[in-house]
Structures are given as C-alpha cells and as structure tokens.
Amino acid sequence: MRKIIVSGLAVLALAACGTTEDPTAADETAPSSGERITVTDSRGKEVVLDGPAERVAATEWNAVEHLVSLGVMPVGVSDIKGYGQWVSSEPLDDTPTDIGTRGEPSMDTLAQLDLDLVVVTDSLVEGALEQIEKDTPVIVLTGGDSADPIGAMWENVDILAEATGTEDRAAELRSDWDTKVADGRAAIAEAGADGSKVAFSDAYADSGSVSIRPFTSGSLIGGVLAELGFENAWSMEGDAVYGLAQADVEGLTNLPDDVRFWYIANSAEGDPYADQLADNAIWRNLPFVKAGTVHRFPDSIWMFGGPTSMAQLIDAAVDAVS
C-alpha cells in the first residue's frame, strides 16, 4: 500500500508555529492525497481509500476495460492473453502483471504488487474475496444486471471513476456514448432497418455438439440493440445477471423467418456456426440461413464489457445493415 505522508507545506507550517508535536505522529494519520475517499461498491459496502487509487489490479475483464477507458492502466490483470484475444477496444500496454485466472487470482502475485485497490466481481472462488481483503481494499462490481444492463454498466464505470479520481473522464465517456447511440440509431433508420428482428448469439462446440447461447433482451448486447431500434427475436428469458439463455440448433427453428441472425465468434476458438454446423441439415434449411441474413460480427468485441466495447458493437450493427 502507498505510504501516508505529510506534505512539505504542512511541515513548514508546523515549524513556523514553533510546535513541539512529533511529526512522526502526523505521518501516521494523514492520507497520501490529503483526503480519504469512500466508495460504495455493488455490495453496498463502503470501501475507504487513502486517496485516488493508482496501483489497481482487476480480475474481470469488464473492470479492466473500464479502468483503461478511464485512463488508469492496471498493474495487475487476470489472464492477460485471454484479454488480448477477446477485448480490443481498450488494449493493455506491456506493464500489467498477470495475476492468474479470473475466478482464482494468485494471492502471492497480488501481495507483491503494492496495490492501492483490487477490483473483482462476485465470480471469485469461495474464500478468495475475504483473503484479498485482509491486505488490500477491494471493490466488488456486478457482472451485469438483466433488469437494466446498460445502467449496470454505467454504475460500474462510475464506481471506478470515483475510486480513481477520474470522474471527468467518465463524463466524457458518457457524452461520447450518447452521441454514438444517437448516430447509430439514425444510420440504422436511414438504412431502413429500424424495427428489424435480431437474434444475437454466440456458440460453443464440445465433442461435436454445438451449444448456442442467445443474448436475450436482458443482456448488455440486447440492451444496446434495443437502444438502436431493433427488436430482440429471442422469446426465452435469460439469467438474472448476464441475460443469457441456452439453445441448440433445433431451437433455432422457433425464430421468425425474417430474423437477422447475428453472432460473434473468435478465431482463437473457432466458429461453430461456420464449422460444426456447415453440413447440419437443420441449420442449412433455416429460412434466415437460406436468405443469407446470417452475419458474423468482428472478433474481439467484448460482449460483457463497457461503453467502448459497446461502441464497437454499434459500429458493427450499422455495418451489418448498410
């Protein structure tokens, strides 16, 4: 943790007054920035910091992206290689240290980084949060909230802006976001795609079987697409945090014939729709497949990220209908 010091002006003032107070005692009580910061995290817990956090580690990639977008390069990041493969809107420089997996960071590595703050979500393994909090302040963010996915994203950004003293940058991000949404909605309307039905998903292949993950209206992507004027074609409910559901290729027969079927994949893990389902009779005979309204979005738009990842999504959606 950063050491608490007294400013040079304060020391001179004490000397001018002829005080006999032990300056060491003052050193032990004055926060480094001159003012402590109290931040309320997603648990409703008040986290007290000695000043704006500068040396920050983050376990989840949404928090990492938020920090970089606010101008704070984390000193510790979970699974740096994976972040580079899946998140492109806010790249890391070569300074962060890899702290292990997103669910189970290395306590030894964290202890060596002289951290002001660790940022996590509630996806840590049991006992990890309590162990980290023994030595370092911890802010817990939500992974998401299907009741208000965009609002949850901004709440996380604002919490980290307050903790790092970057509120002005957060205001710029919000202004840029409002402009991006308005411009995207206008471009989609101009293309005649306003009100189009969209089914967005990703998919995973395991032993030849393809599992499809629909992004319902409660997902962050679903919320952004709704802001742009699209209608979510998935009829099922998603989970309470991320708004995600489960389906298989047979379940795609329930989608409307005129749906725009959009999905995201990653070259690091392959494309189940183009690979495993290429010769699948059910897939090939779906009306939207025959109509050619299947569209793969660019790699490395982080589906659970922040406003800069979602800005990439808006650009990709505009490109898909142009």
Question: What this model shows, in words?
Answer:
The structure is a single chain. This protein has helices at about 10-15, 25, 60-70, 80-85, 105-110, 130-135, 150-165, 165-190, 220-225, 280-285, 285-290, 305-320, and strands at about 35-40, 45-50, 55-60, 75, 95-100, 115-120, 140, 195-205, 210-215, 230, 260-265, 295. It is an alpha/beta fold. The strands form 3 sheets. The protein has a 5-stranded parallel beta sheet with strand order 5-4-3-6-7. Strands 8, 9, 10, 11 and 12 form a 5-stranded mixed beta sheet that branches. Helix 9 (about 220-225) crosses helix 12 (about 305-320). This is Iron-siderophore ABC transporter substrate-binding protein. Keywords: Signal, Transport. InterPro entries: ABC_transptr_periplasmic_BD (IPR002491), Bact_iron-sidero_bind (IPR051313). Pfam families: Peripla_BP_2 (PF01497).
List the helices and strands and how they pair.
Elements: H1 8-16, H2 23-27, E1 37-40, E2 46-49, E3 56-58, H3 61-69, E4 76-77, H4 80-86, E5 97-98, H5 107-111, E6 117-121, H6 128-133, E7 138-141, H7 149-164, H8 167-190, E8 197-206, E9 209-214, H9 220-227, E10 231-232, E11 260-264, H10 281-284, H11 287-291, E12 294-297, H12 307-321
Parallel strand pairs: 3-4, 3-6, 4-5, 6-7, 8-10, 8-11, 11-12
Antiparallel strand pairs: 1-2, 8-9
Helix pairs in contact: 7-8, 8-12, 9-12
